[in-house]
Amino acid sequence: MKVIGINGSPNEKGGTFHSLTQVCNALEKDGVATEILHIGKHTFHGCKHCGQCFKNKDRKCVLDDDFNTLATKIYEADGIIIGSPVHFAGMSGVLKTFLDRLFYVSTANGNLFYQKVGAAVTSVRRSGGVTTVDSMNHYLQYSGMMMAASNYWNVVHGNGGDQVLRDTEGMQIMSVLGEQMAWMLRIRKEGNPPAPQKKVYMNFIRD
Questions:
Q1: Which phi and psi angles does 7 have, rounded to 5°?
Q2: Digit-coded pLDDT (tens) for 25-38
Q3: Which among 98, 147, 88, 156 is positioned nearest to 122, based on CA atoms?
Q4: What whole-number distance in Å separates Cα of residue 19 and Cα of residue 163?
Q5: What are the φ/ψ torsions at residue 157 (nearest 5 degrees)?
Q6: Crossing angle, helix 129-142 and helix 93-108, to 10 degrees?
Q7: 10 Å Cβ neighbour count for 33?
C-alpha cells in the first residue's frame, strides 16, 4: 500500500511539508509506503474544459506542462493527503489549479479516487486553517473517498517550519491522522466494498 502526500506550498520545506511528513511517518510505522510530491514549485495552466480527457480516457490532460507526470503517481496510490498553506483563508492558487485538473481527469476516467483513502492538512500562522481544510475536503468527498480524521481539526500552527514543529498538539493531530489512515487502508484492502454505480447526471434546467 502507498500514500502520496501533495505539498501545495511554494515553500518546499515549510510548515506544510512538516505536517505531511508527520502524517507520513505514522503511516510508515504501520507499514504503508509514502511519498511527498512538491506541487507548489510548478506552474500549471488552469483547466480549459476542453473535454479531451473524456474523449481520450487515457488518464491524461492534453495541456502541455508537468501535470501528467505528477498525476500518474497520484492515481496509482491507495491514498492521498492534500496539504496546503493558508492563502487568504483558502488553499494556495497553484494547488487549486492542480486539483481542479487532477479530479476532472479522474472523473473523465471513471473516478480514479473512488473508495481510496484521503485526508487534507494545512499549516497556518494564525487563522483560516479550518476553511482551508474544508475546501480541500470537497475534492475528497466529491470523489467518494474514505475520508480519514484525527482527534481535532487537521491544522498545525506556526510561522514557518521550526515553529510548526513546536506545535505539540498539531503534531499529535498529524500522527493520529496517519494512524487512522493506515487503519482505513487495511479495512479497504481486506473489506468487501459495494460495487460503484454508474453516475447519474441531471440538469436542473431542461429544454
A1: -90, 105
A2: 999 999 999 999 99
A3: 156
A4: 12
A5: -120, 145
A6: 10
A7: 13
Predicted confidence at residue 201, as pLDDT, reads 85
72-76 long-range contacts, CB within 8 A, separation 24+: 73/4, 73/35, 73/37, 74/4, 74/6, 74/37, 74/102, 75/106, 75/112, 76/2
Give the chain's mean pLDDT. Answer: 95
Cell 491507495 identifies what position? Answer: 78
What is the DSSP secondary structure assignment for residue 39, as one 8-state letter?
G
Q: Which of 141, 123, 140 lies closest to 132 in space, CA to CA?
A: 123
- At 80, the amino acid letter reads I
The residue-averaged pLDDT of 128-151 equals 97
Grid coordinates standing for 53? 480527457
Check residue 205 and give its pLDDT: 82
